[in-house]
Write a structure and sequence with these properties.
The protein contains eleven helices and eleven strands. It is α/β, with parallel strands linked by helices.
Length: 294
């Protein structure tokens, strides 16, 4: 076997931090090292690789575009090493350790709160860290290794690098502002209050409305269904939301038509190249037993 350069995990961590943080000082602070130690570590990595990874721009040092494969490799190794450490700790500690879970808001608030409470009560030594965010953010964080598992909206095509397990399907309905029902069919509906363009649900909604002949003219956007609900109540426009969110509470929205517009699938996603994480798998299996809402 030919001789390979002696690269350390610490040096690769330095490289990832420098690429993620706005300044070298911020990267050093994030790593809890001095700027001098960070600079020396990166310089030693460059020496061992035999290439320069940064170019000077005034007082700043910026990554060279042609060095991007090195940065991608460093990030991959760091994520895989974190996986190994987490896996070892989980295995050694049994039902203890850390589980990083991401959920879209409707999953955390309406569909799975009882399961989360039961899961944590049965694992008192497990530290469960829950992040609530849009699907696109959660998918990115799972891919980057920042989350062990996430509950998101399924996309029409498979998500690259991720394993997906179907959980539940939920109906989404069309809702109009308060007051008399306006005349005309789907072509007269709107204007619309929508999820942002990168939302997985928005593309599903836009396609379904187009099939009905509705013009999807969006005048306001929000990732937060509660904000969208309030905009509709104020008469600002129409929207499409999960029935579980739009029709709960003292001020349910008014459906524009009785039948739901569509059903979307919620899935649990984990990295395909992950190491075993028994707690994440146990949570996924528990959530997969939940009945689909009607």
């Amino acid at each position: 076997m030919r001789s390979l350069p002696q690269l350390s995990i610490q040096q690769l961590c330095y490289l990832v931090a420098v690429s993620d943080q706005p300044t070298w000082a911020a990267a050093a602070a994030d790593l809890h090292v001095t700027p001098s130690a960070l600079s020396q570590g990166v310089a030693e990595l460059e020496r061992r690789l035999g290439i320069e990874l940064f170019v000077r721009d005034g007082r700043r040092r910026l990554p060279r575009p042609e060095a991007s494969p090195v940065f991608d490799y460093a990030r991959s190794v760091v994520v895989q090493t974190e996986d190994l450490v987490n896996w070892t700790r989980t295995r050694l500690a049994g039902r203890s350790g850390r589980l990083r879970v991401g959920m879209i808001d409707v999953a955390a608030i309406h569909h799975f709160p009882d399961q989360l409470r039961r899961f944590t009560s049965e694992r008192v030594d497990l530290s469960l860290e829950l992040s609530v965010a849009p699907s696109s953010d959660l998918v990115r964080r799972v891919t980057d290794g920042d989350l062990d598992i996430a509950i998101v909206v399924a996309t029409p095509t498979p998500l690259p690098g991720l394993d997906a397990v179907p959980l539940i399907s939920e109906p989404l309905a069309i809702y109009r502002p308060p007051g008399p029902k306006p005349p005309g069919g789907p072509a007269a509906w709107g204007p619309w209050i929508a999820f942002p363009p990168e939302s997985h649900s928005r593309s599903l909604i836009a396609s379904s409305l187009a099939d009905l002949g509705s013009n999807y003219v969006v005048i306001a956007e929000s990732h937060q269904p509660e904000v969208m609900l309030q905009m509709v109540r104020l008469g600002m426009g129409w929207t499409v939301l999960p029935v579980s969110q739009a029709e709960r509470g003292p001020e349910p929205l008014t459906r524009a038509r009785k039948r739901p517009l569509l059903e979307r699938q919620l899935i649990a996603v984990q990295r395909t190249d992950r190491l075993d994480h028994p707690a994440a798998d146990a949570l996924r299996d528990m959530l997969s037993l939940v009945s689909t809402p009607h």
